[in-house]
Amino acid sequence: MIKIAVYGKGGIGKSTVTGNLAAAFASLGKRVIQIGCDPKADSTIFLHGGERIPTVLDLVRKGESFDLEDMVRVGYNGVVCVEAGGPVPGLGCAGRGIIAALEELEKKGAYEKYQPDVVIYDVLGDVVCGGFSMPMRKGYADKVFIITSGESMSVYAANIAMAVENFKSRGYASLGGFILNKRNVKNEEEKAAELAADFHSSVIAEIDRSDLVSEAEDMHKTVMEAFPDSTAAEQYRALADKIAELCGMGEEK
């Protein structure tokens, strides 16, 4: 099993990339769990037809007992979807939903039941405190991948890599590389490469801007489901292959 955390600033297309990555792994015959770690709880929405699913924090707040099946939905191609959720607006810590989700998944035996080959944590990268850093700590994720573009604010937010560096000596997740989700801005590839080099890393994939993404999302689907033969879908499959290689998935036999 490989466990990866995908970080990026809000609006960079992090959940779009992550959802398509989960679908790409599933298309390669892998059992996948995707855990949305964003208070908006929309990480997995296009993997299960646009339906909003109960978040773990919502279930916890009710103060009633609940089962594993209450907090998961099995979506496209068998991808198991979980949304951590967040606090009531203006109250509480958003990171608490992540902590609660990870604890409940373990407590309720999700990994034993679904036996995933790939676990993907989709994490908001604008904030790196407490709960938002949980997926890179305590053995949850093996590697962290950071989504960026050539836009200045997304490059700034990609400094989540600094947190990975700070945790490195503690045996936590290591930096797997950067994923360039193109916005067609000037010198985009050069900026991303320079950023990666600053952290002794590299850009492992470039995802071209494509109108098919919004067309697929209008259909409440990922590109992988709506346009499986497209160039965009092929780029996501190539990304899945690259991450599998970097995480040593091919060596697990």
Distance between the termini: 11 Å
Q: Note the main sheet.
A: 8 strands, mixed
The portion of residues forming beta strands comes to 15-25%
Write down the overall mean pLDDT: 86
* Rg, alpha carbons: 17 Å
Would you mind describing this structure in some detail?
This protein has 253 residues and is of the alpha/beta class. The chain has helices at 14-27, 56-61, 68-71, 95-107, 110-114, 152-157, 160-167, 188-198, 211-218, 223-226, 231-246; strands at 2-8, 32-37, 73-74, 80-83, 118-124, 143-148, 174-181, 203-207. It is built from eleven helices and eight strands. Strands 3-4-2-5-1-6-7-8 form an eight-stranded mixed sheet, with helices on both faces. The protein is globular and about 55 Å long.
Primary descriptors:
eight-stranded mixed β-sheet; alpha/beta; 18% strand; 253 residues
Protein topology:
Blueprint: E1 2-8, H1 14-27, E2 32-37, H2 56-61, H3 68-71, E3 73-74, E4 80-83, H4 95-107, H5 110-114, E5 118-124, E6 143-148, H6 152-157, H7 160-167, E7 174-181, H8 188-198, E8 203-207, H9 211-218, H10 223-226, H11 231-246
Parallel strand pairs: 1-5, 1-6, 2-4, 2-5, 6-7, 7-8
Antiparallel strand pairs: 3-4
Task: Give a short overview.
The protein has helices spanning 14-27, 56-61, 68-71, 95-107, 110-114, 152-157, 160-167, 188-198, 211-218, 223-226, 231-246; strands spanning 2-8, 32-37, 73-74, 80-83, 118-124, 143-148, 174-181, 203-207. It has 253 residues and is an alpha/beta fold.
